[in-house]
Prior knowledge:
By secondary structure, the chain is mainly α. The protein has helices at 8-13, 24-46, 48-59, 69-83, 86-107, 117-154, 159-183, 187-194, 202-205, 210-246, 257-265, 267-290, 293-300, 308-311; strands at 2-3, 313-314.
Amino acid sequence: MSRIDFSFGNAISHYxxxxxxxxxxxxxxxxxxxxxxxxxxxxxxLQWPIYEVYIRFFTEGxxxxxxxxxxxxxxxxxxxxxxxxxxxxxxxxxVAFEGANQRRYMRSEGFRLRIGADEGRxxxxxxxxxxxxxxxxIGLIIAVIIPVVLGLVLxxxxxxxxxxxxxxxxxxxxxLALWLCARLSAAAALTVRDQQIxxxxxWRVTKGKGWTIxxxxxxxMLIIMLVYLVLYIAAAALGFxxxxxxxxxxxxxxxxxxxxxxxxxxxxxxxxxxxxxxAFFLVQAAFQxxxxxxxxxxxxxxxxxxxxxxxxxxx
Length: 315
C-alpha cells in the first residue's frame, strides 16, 4: 500500500485506484444503463402521441407535414405535461448514482444505490451547479453579442476585426468557464467526504490543480469521443446491413422509401439497434464515473483534511 499523489497521470487513472471491493465500474455501468433504458422507455411511452403523429407523417403523409400540424401541436402540449412527470425520477436517479459514485472515490465502498443524507446534500450541490451554468450561459450570450455590437459601431471597414475579436473573446470565455468548473469540481466529493454541503470549499482544495484537472478532462473526453466514433460507425454499418438485408434494391443504390420505412419499423431492425443503443449507455455510464476521478483525487489528497493520510493509501 502506498500513498497516491495528485498528478496528471494519477488524475486520469484514479478510477482504477480507489480501493474497495472489485467490480464497481462494470456494476455501475450496467445498472446505470439498465435504469437509463427504463427511463427512456417510460419517456417514449409518455410522449408516444408525438411519435405516432410523426410515424403517420412519414408513412402516410408523403412528406407533407401541414395536414398534421394541428394534431402535432395538440400531441406536443399533451406530451409535454406528461414528460414533466419523468423529471423527478431523473433527478432521483442522478443523486442515487452520484452518491454511489462519490462514496466509491471518497470511502472506497462497493457499488450500492440508496437515497439518504448524502443524496440530499448532493441534490443541493446539483442545484448550485445549475445556477452556475445559467450564469455561464448568460456570459456566453454576452460573448456573442459583444462582437455584433462592435461590428455595428465600427462599421463595415472594421467588421473583420470585430469578428476576430469576437472569436477570441468567445474562446477566452469558454476556457475561463472550463477552468472555473475545474476549480469547483471537487464540490460533490467534498460533500460526501465531510458529510456536509461543500461547494465553494472546492476552490481551496483545487488550488494549483485546476489546469491539471482541465487537462485530464480533455484527454478523457478525447478518448470517449474516439469510443463514440467507433460505436457510431458500427451502428451505421449495422443499420445499413439490416436495411439492405430486407430491401434488396437498397444495396443497388436505390432508396425505395416505403420499403425502407417498413424495414426500419420491423423488429429485425430495431432489435439489434437497441443493443447498440444499450452499448452507448454503458459507455456513457463508465465515462460518468471515470471523469469524476480527477476532482475526487484532489479532494482525497487535500493536505488540510484530517483523514488525508489514511485515505491517501490505495491497493
